[in-house]
Structure formats: structure tokens, C-alpha cells
Amino acid sequence: MRIITTALLSLAALTGCQFGDNDTLTVSPVPEVKSNLEITAISTGPLDTLEPSDTVKTYYTVDVTGFNNVDVEVHFYLMHSDELDVSSEQEAAIEDIQQIAVVELAALTEGTSEHEIDLQLPNVLEGGNYHIIAQIDPNDLHVEDIEEDNHPSVDHEPHLDGEFPHADIVVREQEDHDYKLLSAAFGQSALILDAPSVDNGASEHHSDLIGYLEADYEGGNLGLSHIKAEVMVAGNWVETHFWDAQSNQYTDTLAHEFTAELHDEHIGFDIALEPELLQQLYTHYNAQSDNQLELRFTLIDAAKDAETRTDNNEILTSIPLYFFEQADAPQERPARQARINESAIAPAAVGLANINFSSEFNKSYGNKSKFSVGVDLQGQLFIVPTGDPGGRITGEGTVEAYFFNAKNTLFSISYNGSAYISGLNTGYESEMIIFNNVVFEDEKFTAKYEKSWEKKWEEDKVIAQATFTVGPIPIKVEAGVTGNLGFELTVGYNAELYAEGDLFHVDFGAFGRGGVNLLVASAGVQAILTLIDNTFAMESNAGFALLTNDNTNPHIYYGIELKNDLDVISGKFGLYAETYGVKWCKKWGIPYPCGKKTTRYDLWLYQTNSVFDKSWTIYSKEGDINL
After folding, report:
1. How confident is the model over 488-518, as pLDDT tens digits?
2. DSSP assignment of 174-239
3. Would you say which domain of life the source belongs to (predicted)?
């Protein structure tokens, strides 16, 4: 008896061979596939030319045989199509291939299912034609009858003609040397200025416009750049000045050194408008109109290398502009009038009107989607020279922070001290809030008083959570602040109302913890970030030298000084992931896994030098008022 295979039977039919009566034909059946996992199709739909960092919606089909309620991983890769242009019988490593996503499909049942995923392209791509390919069950956690079809393979016959599942995309070719400004944002809703004729009591170190620029670089010739800021006055661009924390002075341009492969540069700015420019703006200001201050930021290559593009080195933006006219305070100043009712009363140098000396500083720093800190400071000396002569001294400071778009009040303190000759409404009150909780309250009202506070706290609190994709790995991150805060203030009244000392000091840094629950990766947080280091000091006094037998010149003497020492958001905060992935090779124009390798990915959420490191007098006034 002879056993003849299916191949021999086919050969006999082709050659016309006949079997004898005693011959027996036995055919070996094709093995039945009892278990298998396979991606049978990948597509994106029609797409225009893409940019690095773009997101591509990708569709893929999964075929499951012999499994029910199975969990399986799928890894996606981006490979330059030039890698497959040369077909060789020799195995060679694929150089331009990047893992771009890891996804786990849960509870799959037998049969065919359709899925979709948003794939984010890496920041760094040479440009050109790319293939999106995938591998299912990369760690062989499930036993299958056919393992070769889990990915493109030279050992899987349907793939031998290059017909492996993939999607084609086209990415813009990258520039050889190109700086670019992407956007500009301000840390204030409006620019509110005093008229040039008004002595606003501020030192020469002041902060009119606070904000940040986002920038990027393409190419391999990194170097120093300079940024110039100009404002529009009567149809002409006029240069203004940046605060430089390193040189501790104002400069014509802001220097910035780009960081390799950061691709999300954060460039903070602190702009001061000099008196001549303020006068020009005021001359062309119309209080009856909607006034906007137009600004132009221009980035300049310090090395003067020939950039391939210069049309992306400029940002035009604007911000509402107001000049604060004291006589029209309730209408013209969209600030905190509701908080201090007396501030709506215009100050008077002589006469019997109430007199109000006050100033505020209200700015925020940073990007709310990552890290941002807002500082709101206020100080006031309010004097009542008639009726029941007296006065009031107030101070207030609030620090708010945004972590991943979540708003948190880190710290708030307020002080209010008053004194009147009659003894009525004479006393003080103070309150401190930390992380939305009142931790300190104190008040006392009496004819005379003196009180000193010296309190310190150390805090460590998680205040936000978010998920970021670092390379192909999603990382869940929790972030918070750690540091100390406190105040040291002396207040009192005994013929003179006074308050002196540090209303508050805060010193907070940001910390983060992160991790993944995938077997194929490890992840972590790298952070050295000063969130805020701020001391707000105040010295205020008001003495009431009224008419007595030995005082023939009744008068009130006063003084108020508000100082701030501020350093906001300096350092870096980032995430990293290490994937235990696949090394890819090619042969006969087909890509396939050929080993293992570890790849590290970094994502810097924030990386900046301190540009707000400044000490200055917010407000300073002193004098006499004759009654």
C-alpha cells in the first residue's frame, strides 16, 4: 500500500498518471487552526500631509480564533518606508522605526472586531512616507497555532509579497535650521496703568506685563536666540524692555537658549514700560473707547545663521489697556473695588476728605495646563481726618496654583487693623487659609493694643492627578507641593497705628509621583521645580497729632511701604518611561521582530530659568496732612 500526499495527487493529475486497482490513496488534511490572534487590516482614511506631534486616528481589525474573554496587548510602530526600498536576502536592522502606542484590548470574544486609536506622531521625524504597523500579543502570553501572523513576518506566506497589514501616511519634511514662536499668553486679563502724572509710589523695578511664550526648534544647529518686544503707539512699533533675573536689570532683549528635543519651550517674560513710553500711550488713550495694547514679539538668531524659514519668528497679540484715573475709580478700574469700599473714594492731599493710599499686584505665571502660580497682593492705609479721626491698615496676600488645569488655593492671609480716637472700632483681625482650610484666626478690639505673630507651617500635599503619554506609554501622575510658609508681623495702636514685618512668606516646590501598570514598561517623574518663593513685607503707620495745649498745629502723619521679593517657577519638571520592546529587522522588503531592546522616552512638562526673580517696592508713600 502506498500513501500519497496531496502534493503528489496534484502532480498525478497534471501528468495523467493512473492508479492501479490495488493502489490506495490517502490524503493528509490541512491542519485546523484552533487558536489564533491576528491583526488583519490597518487604515487611517484620507489624510493630508501631517506635522510632527499630530494625532492620527487609526482603525484596525482584530481576528480572534479559539479564545473567549481574552485580554491582549497591541503595540503600534511607525517605520519610514525608505527602510523597505531595498530588498535583500540578508537580514539587516531597521534604524528608523519608533514605537508610538501600547494598548490593551480587554475581554475580546471569538470572531472579528473593529477598533480605533488616536496615535500621536513623535516630535522628531525626518519627514517623508511612513508605514504604521502593529504587533499583537508581543510577549507571547497566549499559545496560538500560528504565531507568525502576530506581526509582519517572512515566515508567514501571505506576507511574502509585502502584503502585510499597514497604513501609509506622509509627514512634512523637517527644516534644517528653524526657530519658531508658536504662541504668547499673558498672566493678567488687562494692563491697568496709572496716568504718567501720578506718582504711583513704585520703585524702578516693577512688572507691567507678565506672561510666557511657547517656541520650538527644528534642525541640528542649536544656539542662543534673542527675543524683542515692541508695542504699537500711533501706528509705530516702539521697543520696550525685559527683566533679566541673571543680570538683575532690564534689557532690550530676552536671551533664550533652546534645549535639544524639548519641542515645547516655555519662555517666561516680565516686561516694564518706561516713563517715556507710558506718556506716549497716555497721549493716544481714549477713555471712551475700547483700548487694546498691541504687542509684537520677534525671535532673532544670535548666531545669525541662515534660517530656512523666518516667517514663523514673530507673534502678534494684544491685551486690554486701561489708565486708572483716580477721580473715576468706580467706573475706570476693573479691579478689586468691591473688596475695599473706601478705595472708591478719591485721595485728597488737603482738605477734610477721607484719604486712601493703596496698591495691589495681581499677576499669574506659567501655563495652567501644566503649572501656573498666581500672586495677588494688596496693601492699604486709609485715613479719616474728620469726625472721629482715625485710620485703618490692611494687607492681604493670596497664592493660587494650577496643576494640570486644576485650580488650588495654596495660601491666603489677610490682616485688618483700625484705630479711632473715640476707641470705637479699634482693634485687629487676621486670618490664614492653607489648602482651602482656615488654619488660623485672631481678632481683638480694644482702645489700645499691640500684637506680634510669628507662625510657621510645613506642608506637603497632593493636589492634582493627570495622565500623560510618554512615547507610547500612558503614565498616571499625581503632583503637589511641598514647602513652608508663615508670617511675622507686629501691629498696634497707642496714639499711633502701625503694622510692620513680613505679612507672609511662602516657599513651595512641586513634586510628582508616577507609574504604569504595564509589564512592558517602567516610568517615573523627574522634578527640580521651585513653584514659588515669595516674601511680602509691609510697613505702615499713621499718627494722630491732634489739637492739645502743647500742639498748635494739629496734623496726621503717615507712611506706607509694600515690598515684595519674588521668585516663581524655576527649574524643570518632567516624566520618563522605559519600554522593554522589540528590535526590528528586515529581509526581502519585509519588517519583522528580531530581538529585544530597551528604549527611554522623556517628556518635559516644564523647563525654564527663573525670569521673575525680583525684589522691588510695590508702593511707598509718606507725608503729613494738616487739619
Report:
1. 999 999 888 999 999 999 999 999 998 887 7
2. PPSEEEEEEEEEESSS-EEEE-TTS-----S---SEEEEEEEEEEES---EEEEEEEEEETTEEEE
3. Bacteria
